[in-house]
Amino acid sequence: MTKTVCVVGLGYIGLTSAVMFSNYGMKVHGVDINPSVVRNINEKKLHIEEQGLQELLDRALEEGTFTASTTPQEADAFIISVPTPINSNKTANLDYVKEATKSIVPYVKKGNLVILESTVPPKTVENIMIPELMETGLEIGTDIYVAHSPERVIPGKIFEELVKNDRIVGGINEKSAELTKELYESFVQGEIHLTDATTAELVKVMENTYRDLNIAFANELSKIADNIGVNIWEAIQFANLHPRVNIHFPGPGVGGHCIAVDPWFLVEIGGDDAQLIHLSRHINDSMPAYTAQKTLSILKDNKIEGGKVAVLGLAFKGNVNDIRESPSITVIDYLQQLGLEVVSFDPHIKENNHETQTQYLEEATRDADILLFLTDHHEFKTFDPLTITTNNKIVFDTKNCLNRKVWQNAGFQYYLLGDAKFI
Ligand code: SAJ
């Protein structure tokens, strides 16, 4: 039975998994190449926002079941959980996976298990990790075991989903998969399904690509609805009453480090066979420009030339403080290119990450000609429009997160993305 775990990469997935293992009977050592991340963690300061994380980290540090540093340590199992971004030409950047694997080589001993958690293009375990692990001089598959155990958790509900979700575990051989299952069973209550590493890699990328395609469909529908006088949100809700239909929802774009990135892995390896996936990426990437253009049209419709936009929401989605690949940033760029002045506010992002950002709602809205909601944070849903001072009373809701009646009763003109009554 595995007793010690070394987790490489202390981001959303690495850190949350590390504190779970350390609260469920393992002794865990976490590694991050960024010394300030390590320093903060050791001082119980979080660099990421996730419900329940602070308590679990505090307990693990106090009980001594979790330590963190910038270098790996010997352990029974190694878990690699590092970013897998895309390069500017949309090809997968697997440098972090390669470097992280290299970094554990001096510490890997006979009988150890090495698990990749990061989302990767199919064949990464085989083509990138295995050659690095061969440097240990140990026999792969008999001396050391290797598996892919992709995470499936949604930011905002990570701890609930880490426990409850089923997991797909792919080993380079049966023993590798079995050992990985045994390790995760310490806290996973969902079923753990075993397969080979390449299948597990493909399954994970397929899941996120499914969501990207579905959202692209919703975004395309929202553009059609804008032109024909239909509220797409209502239409999708009705369509989803069909027992075999589950259309996702439109918005100002698709962000985050997963859904907007992983489909490119399939485009890269699929080439001409991945046309639908490729097109969906383009549709979703077209939404920030579309949103900016609609904002300008609304202003023009109200006889406002130029004007100031208060952008509400910088995070890539509601109730997180993560701005990676956030469509809000791209929307702001387009708004500025269209000659509009922008001030932005996000109650979840406590440090100014963007030149337009203010920490004060009042400062963002005071002289605004339009309030542009780009993220469905719960704080926004409960805003009382009567308490908001603006220059013009116009609101554009791109996430269907506001109560139309409440805003209209407060004297605002309410516009909804994907609602033709629009303009
Ligand atoms: N979005 C829409 N319309 C929707 C749903 C989402 O426009 O109907 C947008 C969001 O606003 C956001 C983006 O899509 O900008 C992505 O958000 P998300 O909530 O769909 O996904 P992530 O990136 O937070 O998490 C996804 C999850 N994958 C799936 O649901 C298949 C999660 O389970 C994965 O673990 C995670 O990717 C990951 O790490 O791969």
TrEMBL record:
Range of residues in the leader sequence: none
Protein name: Nucleotide sugar dehydrogenase
Family: Belongs to the UDP-glucose/GDP-mannose dehydrogenase family.
Keyword line: NAD, Oxidoreductase
The keyword ATP-binding is annotated on this UniProt entry: no
Native organism: Ureibacillus galli
NCBIfam families membership: NDP-sugDHase
Listed InterPro entries: 6-PGluconate_DH-like_C_sf (IPR008927), NAD(P)-bd_dom_sf (IPR036291), UDP-Glc/GDP-Man (IPR017476), UDP-Glc/GDP-Man_DH_C (IPR014027), UDP-Glc/GDP-Man_DH_C_sf (IPR036220), UDP-Glc/GDP-Man_DH_dimer (IPR014026), UDP-Glc/GDP-Man_DH_N (IPR001732), UDP_ManNAc/GlcNAc_DH (IPR028359)
Domain spans labelled UDP-glucose/GDP-mannose dehydrogenase C-terminal: 310-404
Lineage per the UniProt record: Bacteria, Bacillati, Bacillota, Bacilli, Bacillales
SUPFAM superfamilies: 6-phosphogluconate dehydrogenase C-terminal domain-like, NAD(P)-binding Rossmann-fold domains, UDP-glucose/GDP-mannose dehydrogenase C-terminal domain
Source organism superkingdom: Bacteria
